[in-house]
Design goal:
- With 465 residues, the chain is of the alpha/beta class.
- 35% of the residues lie in helices and 22% in strands.
- It starts with a strand and ends in a 5-residue tail after the last strand.
């Protein structure tokens, strides 16, 4: 099982700094199915190639096998030589730091577009060359695929499901590695380990910037999650999470580099909320409806925040947030700064009093309209933080999402979505009723006709907008 990646952007040998692997050294890594070897067949200023060779242990695979499509499937298969989810595992183990775009001694290089080509000599394509092109061409790749004959001595037997594939693109190395990591198992149509909800975390964390808008999104998700409908629906909902996909209004065109480099609306929301909290001088913050803990992770990276408390009505969401934050491995001093609480947001909770600020990020639209007053009483009346930051989708912007039918909501759990006037009217009513001042700001690129995709309000008790 072999993968080679070639860089032809001079000085090409600087590739080693990105991969965190010395071109003069051979590196071997033990993985669950055998060994992964990293070495450089060539390394010059003009051209540098790294090879990832996976040495599969077929005996170990048989011992852990649960059988297969036929009685001898554990013994007669393509696993030792055909690219599969095993290669994805090896990619993560060998090039995990590079996949995170960590440049080490050359941080600028990690963000640079390079002339890259990746070759997989034996790639199973369950779906044929057409599927291969549908997966990679929207991401900006030029795809060259040579069918591998089933047996050259017997051409009448026809083609095999394998292709010798070369992918070329001008992109960041981290993007190429991320695309390969997610899409190689999709082409193989199988994963050689038990697929659970954790696999959704991998998809969202690794692929969210480009997968949400990919034309084959549902195919990729279904195959990645081994056609488990419940997990597939959850993954789609999390990827769309309030911002659907990148739109032409924001990216110019939803293809190739534009989709990959697009700063997703979810990240823009986190940045806007963090900026509002920083400007307010908050040190102890409540993240109400914290979900997977994305905002908490961003706040913990800033020493300004002495305590961050995530609250959610879903125990599963809090477990997911704990995994994202790495609570089990967190240093004691850092662990003291964060708490995760199970609780409903429409009921007064004495644990939430005395904080500098609270955040309702993409939360109000998940509350039944008849319960919004209870939410306001619990947050602005009972908890009464000095600052409350609220974000919610702008329904007027929905016409810019080509994937939404007229009148449809961005997320299956949304109870409603407000336009700008409706949101401002609600926020001003709450502010007047509970002694707050309020000001509004856009999140995301503003469309001259529909406004921004997300709207944000900052309510302050001291009367300073």
């Amino acid at each position: 099982m072999l993968l080679t990646i070639t860089n032809t952007t001079p000085p090409a040998a600087d590739f080693g700094f990105l991969l965190h692997k010395n071109p003069a050294a051979l590196r071997s890594i033990e993985v669950g199915f055998g060994f992964a070897h990293v070495f450089y067949p060539e390394a010059s200023d003009e051209r540098c190639t790294v090879a990832l060779l996976c040495e599969v242990d077929p005996v170990a695979l048989v011992r852990r096998s649960r059988g297969g499509a036929f009685p001898l499937a554990a013994y007669v298969n393509d696993r030792p030589y055909a690219a599969s989810s095993f290669l994805s595992v090896a990619l993560r183990r060998a090039f995990g730091t590079a996949m995170r775009a960590a440049g080490g001694e050359r941080p600028a290089l990690a963000q640079q577009d390079l002339a890259l080509s990746a070759r997989v000599p034996v790639l199973p394509c369950r779906g044929g060359e057409d599927l291969l092109r549908r997966l990679f061409e929207p991401l900006g790749y030029t795809v060259t695929a040579q069918p591998v004959p089933l047996d050259p001595a017997f051409p009448a037997w026809g083609p095999s499901p394998y292709f010798d594939v070369t992918l070329t693109n001008q992109c960041r190395l981290a993007d190429l590695l991320g695309h390969l990591y997610v899409l190689l198992p999709v082409l193989d149509g199988a994963k050689h380990y038990w697929v659970t909800r954790d696999e959704i975390d991998k998809l969202v964390d690794r692929a969210a910037p480009w997968l949400a808008g990919h034309p084959e999104r549902e195919t990729i998700i279904r195959r990645s999650l081994r056609h488990q409908p419940r997990l597939v629906q959850e993954a789609i909902s999390r990827l769309l999470d309030g911002d659907a996909a990148a739109t032409e209004a924001e990216t110019g065109a939803l293809d190739g580099t534009a989709a990959t480099e697009h700063a997703r609306l979810r990240d823009l929301r986190v940045a806007a909320v963090a900026s509002a909290l920083k400007e307010a001088g908050a040190r102890r913050v409540l993240d109400l409806g914290c979900g997977d803990g994305r905002l908490i992770a961003a706040l913990l990276a800033d020493p300004q925040y002495r305590e961050v408390v995530g609250v959610d009505a879903s125990a599963a969401a809090l477990e997911q947030a704990g995994r994202r934050l790495g609570l089990d491995e967190m240093a004691p001093r850092q662990r003291e700064r964060v708490r995760l609480l199970l609780g409903g947001l429409t009921y007064a909770d004495r644990r939430l009093r005395g904080y500098d600020a609270a955040v309702l990020m993409e939360v109000v639209e998940h509350i039944d309209p008849g319960r919004l007053e209870s939410l306001a009483q619990a947050v602005f009346g009972a908890a009464a933080p000095a600052t409350v930051v609220v974000t919610t989708p702008n329904a007027e912007f929905n016409v810019r999402y080509s994937g939404l039918t007229p009148g449809a909501l961005r997320h299956p759990d949304h109870r409603f979505e407000w336009g700008r006037a409706e949101f401002q009217a609600w926020a001003q009513q709450v502010a007047a009723g509970y002694g707050y001042a309020v000001h509004f700001q856009p999140v995301g690129a503003e469309d001259p006709d529909t406004g921004p995709p997300t709207q944000l309000a900052v309510l302050t008790r001291d009367g300073t907008p």
